[in-house]
Amino acid sequence: MKKRSNPISYLGWLGIVGVIGINTGDFMLQLFLIYFIFFTYRNMPADELFWLNIRKSATRAFILEIILNSVMIILITILEKYNISSAITSAIRISIIRGFGIIFLIALLFFIVMLAWYGKQERKSVEDIYDNNKY
After folding, report:
1. Is 113 found in the same domain as 51?
2. Superkingdom of the source (predicted)?
3. pTM
4. Is 66 in the same domain as 38?
5. Does 23 lie in the same domain as 65?
6. Same domain, 70 and 130
7. HEC assignment per residue over the chain
8. How many separate domains does the chain show?
9. Which of 6, 32, 82, 115 yields a CA-CA distance of 20 to 30 A from 50?
C-alpha cells in the first residue's frame, strides 16, 4: 500500500514564488520562502490529533491577524480623519500595502510556531507515557 504524504506539505510548493522573488529582487515575493517549512510535514501522519493541532494553531493565528489588521485599519483611518492622506506620497501608500503583507507573514509565522509547539507537546506526552509504563 502506497503511503500518502500529508496534505499540508503541499503548501511547501508556494516557496517557489519566493525563489522567483529572489530572482526579481522583490521583497514581498521573497516572503513566500517561509512556505518551504511545510515540506517538513511530508512524512508526518495526518491523524486526528494532527488536524486538531492545525485547528488550534489556525484559530490563534486568525485571531492574531484580525487584531493586527484592525490596528492597521485604525492607523489608516486616523490618517484619513486628520486629512494627512493628502500629504501621503505613493511611497507611504506602498508601505501601507507592505504592512498588510508583513501582518500576514507574522500570522503565518505564528501559525507555524504554534503548530511546532503542539507537535513538541504531543511528542513529550507520548515519551512521558512510554517512560511511566517502563518497568
Report:
1. yes
2. Bacteria
3. 0.80
4. no
5. no
6. yes
7. CCCCCCHHHHHHHHHHHHHHHHHHCCHHHHHHHHHHHHHHHCCCCCCHHHHHHHHHHHHHHHHHHHHHHHHHHHHHHHHHHCCCHHHCCHHHHHHHHHHHHHHHHHHHHHHHHHHHHHHHHHHHHHHHHHHHCCC
8. 2
9. 32
